């Protein structure tokens, strides 16, 4: 639709609204104006981001290994003693934990993140037509 057709249809709508409001006579369109608004357009992109993270030293694996070995040794050494395996497992777990070489530190950890480029754009919002009817000014909002 061309601008002149939109202008003509807008004036026809304005006159029709005037008659619906109980007005009579001729309405004269003075101004047809387009209104725009600013919006932010966000374009996503993906990027790999790496950070140094703290890693605690985990000694539980060494403690569990020591407890298993200590339990086996405790059962074999103290065949006639009650709970010899349990005492061996307890001592083995304690020694495995204390003799563990596990230490904490830092490690580089990388993840893929989505970020956005932002661009301000001006886009069509709506239009208004302002007209006078019987000496009184009216304004009508519409979308093309």
Largest sheet: spatial strand order: 1-2-3
Number of distinct helices: 3
End-to-end Cα distance:
9 Å
Question: How many β-strand runs?
Answer: 3
Ranges where pLDDT stays below 50 over 5 or more residues in a row are none
Global morphology: rod-shaped
Q: Please, could you describe this protein's structure?
A:
The protein has helices at residues 3-20, 60-77, 84-98; strands at 27-55, 105-133, 136-142. The longest helix is centred in the first third of the chain and has 18 residues, at 3-20. Strands 1-2-3 form a three-stranded antiparallel beta sheet. The chain is built from three helices and three strands, in the order αβααββ. The protein is rod-shaped. By secondary structure, it is of the alpha+beta class.
Write a concise keyword list for the protein shown above:
3 helices, 144 residues, alpha+beta
SSE layout and pairings?
Blueprint: H1 3-20, E1 27-55, H2 60-77, H3 84-98, E2 105-133, E3 136-142
Antiparallel strand pairs: 1-2, 2-3
Helix pairs in contact: 2-3
Can I get a quick summary?
The chain is an alpha+beta fold and 144 residues long. Helix content is 35%, strand content 45%.
């Amino acid at each position: 639709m061309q601008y002149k057709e939109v202008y003509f249809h807008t004036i026809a709508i304005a006159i029709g609204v005037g008659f619906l409001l109980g007005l009579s006579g001729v309405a004269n369109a003075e101004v047809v104006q387009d209104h725009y608004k600013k919006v932010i357009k966000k374009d996503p992109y993906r990027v790999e981001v790496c950070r140094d993270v703290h890693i605690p030293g985990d000694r539980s694996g060494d403690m569990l290994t020591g407890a298993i070995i200590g339990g086996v040794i405790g059962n074999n050494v103290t065949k006639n003693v009650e709970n010899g395996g349990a005492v061996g497992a307890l001592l083995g777990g304690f020694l495995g934990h204390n003799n563990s070489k596990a230490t904490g530190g830092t490690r580089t950890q990388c993840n893929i993140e989505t970020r956005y480029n932002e661009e301000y754009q001006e886009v069509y919002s709506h239009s208004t037509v302002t007209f006078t009817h019987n000496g009184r000014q009216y304004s009508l909002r519409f979308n093309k």
